[in-house]
Known about the structure:
The chain has 407 residues and is of the alpha+beta class.
Amino acid sequence: MFDDKFTIQILNQHVSFLILHIKYLVMRMVLIYFGFVISLIISFNSSTFQPQTRVNDGYKHYSGTLDTNMLITFDLLSQNGTITGYYYYGFPVPGDEGFFQYGKTMAVVGNIEGERFEIREKINPQSRFVGIFQDNGNMTGKWMRQTYQQEVKFELEENYNHGSIKLKSMHHYDYHYVEQNNITNKNMPKAEIDISFLVPENKNNQVADTINFYISQFASDTTIPFTTYDKLMKEMANSFFNSYQTTTEGIPNIELLSSFNWQKKYTSEVLYNDNYLLSLRLEKYAYTGGAHGVGIQNNLVFDLKKNQRILLNDLFYEGFEPRLNALIDKKLRKLNDLNSDENLQKAGFLIEEIGFTNNFFLNNDGIVFYYNVYEIAPYASGPLEIAVPYYELRGILKDQGPISWIQ
């Protein structure tokens, strides 16, 4: 038999040790819990309130050869493994050494996997360019017009020597959830903004100043002087979120209303970048409730020699309006199978007669006039492009204008 006092002493020691161990475990669980909560808060704040801004030089202007005697030009934008852009090719004119006849400008889409790429025409996916990116950035591969036709070799290099301008991609993305009583959670609707602009790589010259002015004017709908794209995009995001917060403040059961998941998106693409001409398309889309969002496109053409935006008066002789309007009217009716005397409003348009618009772009084919939704037709009809080839504009195009080279 053990002594009772000794036994009690041993038991007390075990109890004390057990209590200390329990306290340690409880303290450790508390620390783990608070560490988890803090990490969630940091993660939540960083993902919710910290914008993601990056610079990605995804645009490139390529030129090179197709087969042995044809020229080919690409304007490509690569983002997250996808490719979009335009291309055109030219073939030599018999008997006129050094002169080329250019084919129609074609829109393309594609994808990149590692060093390999595949680029397809939008309207004819069987016409595709398959190849690899070389270590120096050049593109080589084969073009297949149809599945069973002979493959044609092509070689392309990044080149800005023929009146083109280098552009880089600027991107900003951010989102904010609805706040109620200064509380935000992920079960609430949110507003998202996604901004991507193609901007001059060299910002210290007059042509860059001109392009930046018009991009910032389109983006912010203000005349605030442009400083930097980082500042511009952050101001755009802050303005959007302030408007969202004001609109959603105090709305009961807002977490059940999907119409308060607002979106705003800005994009740009190069339609033509050659012969000292840059055709740049800017687009903004907004959904702020209702049945659908609305997109608006604005096309800008720049004279890279004179460092200025090109307007119709720069292209045409005085008094061009009646003939140009007649050409556009004829194109519109042909696109919609309408006779020359049919009433446009009865045919579903919002106008009695169509005229030219200052929303246009240039490429090798001609002048393309762009009409946004609701401008001449209902939303269901979508936007409308009317292309007028250069040869149909002879007589009103200026001989010494920005596109005199086309003649």
